[in-house]
Amino acid sequence: MDMSPSYSGIAYAMSNTLTCAQAMYLSQIIAAILKNGAISNWKIVFYLIAGISAASLSVFLIFGTSEEQNWDQSTETEDIKNKQNLIVKSEEIKKSRM
Description:
Membrane topology: Multi-pass membrane protein
Protein name: Major facilitator superfamily (MFS) profile domain-containing protein
Subcellular location: Membrane
Transmembrane segments: 12-33, 45-64
Distance between the termini: 38 Å
Shape: elongated
Mean pLDDT: 81
Keywords: Membrane, Transmembrane, Transmembrane helix
């Protein structure tokens, strides 16, 4: 949310979708690896998960940043318009309740 306040919901939904898809497919892959029941196959599973985690970390380290993005910064006039709209709407709600 800190990097893109306006699009945090969309960003979270996309990352959560990818995580769930990965979990769904990874569980099937792990089941296939462990099919014969050998304990030594767990080493393959752990290396596979470590590799996926390392790849994800590498992508973030190369392309990621912790600064707010330019495409998400709003201008002051937009903020003022939004605040004025909220004030007007809250006043309308108060009047309608009376």
